[in-house]
Amino acid sequence: MNYSTLKKTAALSVAALLTAGMVSAQTTTTTTSADSTMSSGTTTAKVFGGRGQYKTFSIGVNAGVTSPFLAIGGTNEWTNADVSLGYGLSFRSQLAHSFGLQLDLHGGKVRAHNEDAAGNPTAFGNRAGYSTKFYSATLSGVVNVATIDYIRRKNAINFFITAGGGLSFYQPSVATSLADYNSGTYQFYRSDANGNPTSIGIPDATNKKRTVKELVIPIGVGVKFKLTDAVALNLGYTMNFLDGNNFDASYSAAKPQARDKYSYGYGGLEFTLGGKGKPNLDWVNPVAMMYDELYDETLRQEVAALKVRVTNVENAVNDLKKDSDGDGVSDQFDKCPNTPAGSVVDGSGCVLVINPIPPIPVPDPVIPYSNIQFEFDSSVLRTSSYPVLDATSADLRAKGATVQINGYASSEGTPAHNMSLSRDRANSVKTYLVNSGVAASNVKVKAYGETNPIADNSTEEGRVQNRRVSFIKK
User: Fold this and answer.
1) Dihedral in degrees, nearest 10, Cα atoms 149, 155, 157, 163
2) How does it sit in the membrane (predicted)?
3) Which domains are present in the chain?
4) Threshold 0.90, pTM exceeds
């Protein structure tokens, strides 16, 4: 950047600041209040009213100088920086008072050269200087870390930090001799017609300037000055870390893992867009807003009314809790007031008559080898028979005894069918006992059909008793 360009940039910046100051003087109003603690200006925004009550979107323009060196230091393959111009455009959405997302579009050049111990430009090998033209697009988070609000308790200065990521597009070039550097002649990284890298040299019809695309991580700090509610002056410094080693046109074979970087110091104006009556979220002081809301007369009246309602509720609760006869039921629900002290009462406050608890029936004991009953024309065991079968199985296993299972049927059906049915019933019992651990050799089965009834087959009660299996222990 030459001296003439610097003068033009400074003149434009001063003119922009004067214009912003005039706009601020014409649009800013000050109100007075009997309470000196109230903030000046009027706003309808509430602490918990949401983002919709604020202006949150802004556009910024900036310009400044670039350098291959960083404020935090680090290694560099060049000894001296050449002042070069950088410029940018930003779009920011303020998500909260202290945080926003910002899209940055930047461009410019980064230049450097080598000097000897006496401070004279020189060439180290075939490197006298480099010049890289770049463009970048990044998305960053912007965090307001501190504010200065002065007397009016509305923020006037914000200090912020930024960090994000994006893509950088650049064209590196190098001056291979001191004469080339002094004359501004640079050899570019080049690519052929198919986009393949070729040798460094002057671009021609066959070999074009090569554009390198790499990841870039910007990390920066800055300060923002409020000119008006919608216009701010930004001053900042950003360090850009590239995921490559070509930006400075000097690849270090000794340190192939090294990554290039450059910095950008800038100043610019930011314009916040939105509804005319809405305040700018960037300058809101939530603590002051909450303080003002607590002193709002309408809120005080609402609090006073709420206290009255709470008192009424407390009195109603006390009335509900009143129990004159001490039986545990409040007077409003006591249907039998003045019950004697110590009486046991129900939910309505009346004396509770307690009936004696009937005795719990004791189940009949399980007797092993009892008859097993079956449903009509069925050989499926009833679940009610399992206790008797389990007791029988336990006794047989404990004593190693032998048992004969006799199957029977009622007189319905043919004799042949009833004989088969009685055998199936006996086998069902045997299967259960064997599955429970009784040796199969200790269980014998015999079918008797409808013979040997133990009840009258002419009645249903008798037929039910005859559908059975009995045991003979040996």
Assistant:
1) 130
2) Multi-pass membrane protein
3) 3-20+53-284 (2.40.160.20), 372-473 (3.30.1330.60)
4) no
